[in-house]
Every structure is written in structure tokens, then in C-alpha cells.
Design brief:
- The chain contains 18 helices and 13 strands.
- It is α/β, with parallel strands linked by helices.
- It has two domains: about 170 residues, Rossmann fold (3-Layer(aba) Sandwich), CATH 3.40.50.2000; about 190 residues, Rossmann fold (3-Layer(aba) Sandwich).
- A seven-stranded parallel beta sheet has the order 3-2-1-4-5-6-7, with helices on both faces.
- The longest helix has 21 residues.
- The model has no long low-confidence stretch (mean pLDDT about 90).
Amino acid sequence: MASGTRAPAVAIVAGEHSGDLLGALLVGALSKLRPDVRFEGVGGPRMHAAGVECLYPVERLAVRGYVEVLRHYFDIVGIRRKLRARWSAEPPALFIGVDAPDFNLALERDLRRHDVPTVHFVSPSIWAWRPERMRKIRAAVSHMLALFPFETPLYEAAGVPVTFVGHPLADMLPAVPDRELAREQLRLPSERPVVALLPGSRESELVQLADLYVATARLMAQRRPEVMFLVPLVNRLTRELFEAALARDRGEPLNLQLLFGHAHNAMMAANVALVASGTATLEAALLGCPMVITYRMPSLTYRIMWPKRRLPYVGLPNVLAGEFIVPELLQADATPDNLAQALLNLLGDSLVQRRLRARFAAMRTSLRRDAAMNAARVLAPMLPAAP
């Protein structure tokens, strides 16, 4: 902890854009309970706006998969080494790792050896793959904050202190999504069929998926010319990558609108969505948007990762449901023909859409618990008493 009259420091590291959002919500809630605390670490624009001194931008860590991490290995390791040195020399009152387990667990282990309480916010997917990580978690984490109710028994059995806090996205997103309002805000016709295309937030995801998404939209447009497409993208780089894929298509212009952000509005406005596997699939479910889930990664990464899975599905809506309720077309199965057909089938079946929305509404209810404040109440007693 900082000496003298300096405010107690909380170190916090988010490893990607979804973590930036979760981290910002947690910082905002903890700041209400402990306004004397200061925050520093790794984050994005949301965490910075919430009051975090961002020592490094989140984009430096937002890399997924073994092959991709190898390309950025020295940069990522260098950042972790500098953070470890900084916080070992001046230990913070508390460290919070927001997701990014491959980066944060090693940092948490080292800081815990310096008597820094370590909290991990968002359980690694040990229920889905690599259960052997529990040993590393037990050595690194003082307290796990779980977003899903089925995670707590796993940690209790392993002797890791855990609290189910709910999911911040369920609190943040509207309890009853309003499609008509979303369409008004995006200036879309109320009756036109709309498909949202969400190819991910990382550069590596756009490299793998942008051409696939454009080719899928092309096939859908040939079969249903009246369909409109919305493509929300998180930043200028991802937009440029998608625009490059459109330029490579060389067909007639698609009825397609690129958006800077506005992913939630796009999901609410859409009849159906094509969503890259990840947090966006949960966001789509919480917003009541029927979807097809897809993903591609470099073949070597896939061959290493796929045998380690424990569940037959990867999308969070299916994990929460405990069964396939949403189609998943991954890797070799993720072809334009397959994706276009799956989306068209879903678009043309209003009964399936209604059933999915009912399942999604039940998920939203189970996860809506004021998660950020619940988490802040766990963290506040770990901090030194306010002066």
C-alpha cells in the first residue's frame, strides 16, 4: 500500500474490450463505497473514464489463441514484467484481474507472494476446457468473483473463496429490449428484415472472419434481397479491416451499414444476428436477439485448443441453457453457405425466434443481480480502513 497520505491504490488489469466494460462498472461501484481509493493498471476508454490511470492500453493485451500470443509474446511479457516490478516495489492495497486469465493469473500469483490480496473478476472457463487450471487459480487468487451460478460449486470444491455476483451486462442492458426504438435510433424501416453481423472486437478476429461475413451476407442478399445488414465495429482498425473485405468482394454494393460502436442497438434492432463466439453471444441473448454463433481461428491454435474442451458447445447461451438452443458453426463448418442457410432458416421461422427470446429472457432474469455493487461489497472489506 502506498505510504504517507496517498490514497490506497487498487491495481486493476483488463485484457480486452469486454473486460474494459466490466472493469469500468466495478470501478464505478467500488468508488461509491470507497471514494478515497485510486485505481491504476491496464484498461481501455471506459476504465479511463471511470477514473483508472491506464498505464498501458487494453489493446496491447487483446490477443487470443496460442499462435496469436506467440506473435506478441515479448510485448505482453514485457508489460507483465513492468507491472510486477512496479507493484512489487509499491504493493497496492488490492489487485483485481478482470478476465484475461493467461495474463492475470501469473501476475496475481506473484503479487500474492508480496501479501497483496488478489481478486479475479470473471471465472476462467474451467467448466468448458482446461480444468487443470484450478491448481493455478488456487495458488493465485484470494477471492473469485463468478458471473454464473454454476461456477460457484467448482470453486467451493477446490477450496477457493468464491462469490456469485451476477453478470454486470444483465444489469446494464435493458430489462425489456425495445426493437422499435432501436430501429428509430438507427433510422431503419420498422418492417424490413435486419441481420446484425458481429465479427468480433479484436484485429485477429477480423482477419479470420471479415471475408467470411461478407461472403455470407452476399449469399443471403442473393436469396433475400430485401434484407438489410448492420455491422457494428469497435474502432477504426476493425472498421478498416472490414472495409477491406468489402472491397475484395467486388460484387454489387450490399445493403449494409457500418457502425462505430452501437452493437447493442444493432442487436436490438435485428431480427437475427451472426455473432463471433465470445461475450457478444451473451450480449445478444440478454438483448433477446436470435443468433447463429460462429468462429474461426488459425488451424494450429484450433488443433491445440479443441481437444481440451469439456463441453460440446462453446457459445455462452448454449452453456447457460445446458443444451444446443443456438446453432454453432465453427472452423471448417463455418462456410458462407452453411452460415447463410442457418441465418435464413432462423430468419424465416418466427416460432423458433419466439422460443429463443423466451429462453433468453429467463437467462437475463437469472443473471440480473446488481453484479458490480455485489462485487464491490466483497472488495471493500479487503481495503485498509478509510482515514
